[in-house]
Sequence to fold (361 residues):
Amino acid sequence: MPADARHVLIVGAGVTGLLTAIRCALAGHRVTVLDRGAVPNPMSSSFDQHRTIRALDPGDRAATHRVAMAHRLWLELEALLGTRLYRRVGVVTAWPAGEVDAVAAIGAEVGLSVELVEPDTLPHMRFPAGWTGVLEHDAGVLLADRVLTLAARWLDAHALVTVRPRREIVAVDADAGQVVLADGERMGADLILIAAGPWSRELVDLPMVLHRQAMVYLRPPEELARWWEDAPSAGRIGTDGRSWLLPPGDGTLLKVSSSALCREVDSVADRASRPDPAGTSWVDQVVASILTDPDRYPVHGVKECHYLVDAETGGASLVRLGPVVWARAASGGDGFRTAPLIAAQIAETVMRSSPNWREYA
Ligand SMILES: Cc1cc2nc3c(=O)[nH]c(=O)nc-3n(C[C@H](O)[C@H](O)[C@H](O)COP(=O)(O)OP(=O)(O)OC[C@H]3O[C@@H](n4cnc5c(N)ncnc54)[C@H](O)[C@@H]3O)c2cc1C
Fold:
């Protein structure tokens, strides 16, 4: 262990916590990861078959640059863990005819490899009438639960890392730089990261809004399995341009959802708000608005997932709560793909907190 090694304490073993732990351990720091459930925890919001990674955000060039950097970090992680984590099938987003050229131009301007695609080249997906697709090539699907499982395994085998499942934090004392466990134990460290996903609001007092969204898992017909294996992920699709899909492949199912299924809720436990409390017809309606031949896709399951967004910016954020306490305060709809950036930011903060920091500067 280097002389300037620090102790990093991470609360939450979702993608944020696990990737931060890896990054800090690689830098030679001692790391402790606590989670109230198993590690990885199937109840975490990260635990799902897949998550989309794409960079292009025409309204936010800085964010586009940031996620393009995350793309490189994902490839490095894949090399470290030695298994395929990332299906680089591309992501297509649909835009009205009057906007699509400008969107593609922004993509090219910031250095992304993009191409216009006509909806008839993707005949199994529905686009809003008259809209065209912008295909981002260096983008696609992260195999989310595989990422978590391999990351947890890597951490388990690392001499500098202690992973402690079934350890619940009940309070954070930001001034004292300590967390309080359910059994009353207090733990401190040189840096503490609260990465409790949508449950962060229960530990950390910040203006955040909690969203719940339902996702539908479908089994594609056998005769289309080959087509779907090569299909890109897609956003802003469906007849109203509010839907998205993640294609099946590498053993995963086809997953669809729509922003029309997103609800603001008070807590993860709050069971009051459903997409359509009156019945289940919303599943059929959503699937029919996204796929051209919906009856050929049996529904395998429906799952709900939660994320926090900053009440003001609508985005995700990393905040400093006290001298050594940080929180990934909002988990955001882009929280999976940006996790390596948070990990890098925390690792750099740890390095700067070293008494020998001047040696690096
Ligand atoms: C429907 C939906 C679709 C999404 N799609 C995408 C996408 O395509 N691309 C993308 O980048 N992002 C997407 N996201 C967002 C992304 O999934 C999340 O932002 C990300 O997974 C959050 O990871 P996390 O590690 O911060 O939190 P989590 O994965 O939720 O992990 C938090 C961990 O903290 C633990 N914990 C909680 N409270 C405590 C406590 N008191 N003590 C100890 N442990 C505790 C939990 O057990 C859990 O394991 C989507 C989100 C939703 C809801």
Summary: The longest strand covers residues 299-310. The pocket of flavin-adenine dinucleotide is lined by residues 11-17, 34-37, 41, 43-46, 51-52, 168-169, 195-199, 203, 213, 215, 257, 305-307, 328, 331-337 (CB under 6 Å). Residues 1-49+143-207+312-361 form a domain with the FAD/NAD(P)-binding domain fold (CATH 3.50.50.60).
